[in-house]
């Protein structure tokens, strides 16, 4: 079964929660999914060679990169109240690029929500390999290995058996948008083809939930709310709209979910 057979799903749980203006108390470390439609489930066996496997469809070495180095911190607010932060970096690593994020937030009941992610990408923006961890009531870790248009996901959840799933996509535009890690939307903005413009569809992997999805990305006029923004992108599904505001160098400076007064802003 391919991505076309997957039921329509929303954006990652982090954005879905923010869109509903719900306190972070509902967020937790991911739990094994037993009622999702699976796509070509399989088990990963043997050593990983993500560079060789994924680069079979990526740009050749030394091709111009869509990325530029970046480092900083986001404030995460709902209704003007800060509830967390995320530290992030994007830097070259040989012919590849590595994006790292560490997020923490306070749940409504006082619990701490934590998530980390490390995403290796080819110079053209194609994802190669992803490692993640999450912690709330329970701990979980996992990874995604990309090979052509297939994402091989693994997840180890505290108190449950490990899960392994493969997702096969029908488009080469693939993005990682994991729960509670917002700088990955900055990566998505770099993956967007600004020269072509218009609406562009991306297949999405949501590693902590171990499910696939899709989003549409298109340019939007900068608004007064996007302080210092010279460019803007609209990321949408049938259920939700997210606005990305970028500066003149196309760095993400602000992410908004208008329906919920949720804002993630660069400090």
How are the strands of the largest sheet arranged?
8-7-6-5-4-3-2-1-15-14-13-12-11-10-9
Distance linking N and C termini: 43 Å
Count up the helices.
Answer: 3
Instruction: Kindly provide the radius of gyration, computed on alpha-carbon positions and rounded to a whole number of angstroms.
Output: 17 Å
The tally of structural domains comes to 1
Q: Please, what is the average pLDDT?
A: 79
Summing up helix and strand content along with how strands pair, one would put the structural category as mainly beta
Oligomer: single chain
The number of E-state strands comes to 15
What percent of residues are in strands?
35-45%
- State the helical fraction: under 10%
Element pattern in H and E: HHEEEEEEEEEHEEEEEE
Which stretches are poorly predicted, pLDDT < 50 over at least 5 residues? Answer: 1-58
- Coarse shape: globular
Q: Main sheet?
A: 15 strands, mixed
List the main descriptive attributes of the protein structure presented here.
267 residues, 15 strands, disordered N terminus, 15-stranded mixed β-sheet, mainly beta, 3 helices
What does this structure look like?
The chain has helices spanning 13-19, 50-54, 184-191, and strands at residues 70-78, 81-93, 96-106, 112-121, 127-135, 139-147, 150-157, 163-168, 174-176, 200-206, 211-220, 231-237, 240-246, 252-257, 262-266. The protein has 267 residues and is mostly beta strands. It has one domain. Strands 8-7-6-5-4-3-2-1-15-14-13-12-11-10-9 form a 15-stranded mixed β-sheet.
